[in-house]
Amino acid sequence: MVDFRLNDKGEIALKQFGEETGKSIWEISYPGLHAVLSNVMPQGGREHTAEAKESIRQAVQHERDRLWRNQPTHPQAETEVGKTLQ
Description:
53% of the residues lie in helices and 13% in strands. It is built from 4 helices and 2 strands. The longest helix is centred in the C-terminal third of the chain and has 20 residues, at 50-69.
């Protein structure tokens, strides 16, 4: 389930994902970060430790790098205008 809201600008904005949808998105889209976040949950409403924050930062960077490397390749443009745009 996905819950949307109407913001003050008249735009549709994401309010939240349902619990199962959010879990699926994390597991499929960001598995490395999901694993780290699952292991460094702060207890009793406290903030993450410095070590946990560093682990999260590294996991975020790993996911960004992984996603960047996995970008689909596009065929090379054949026209001069196309080559300029690429």
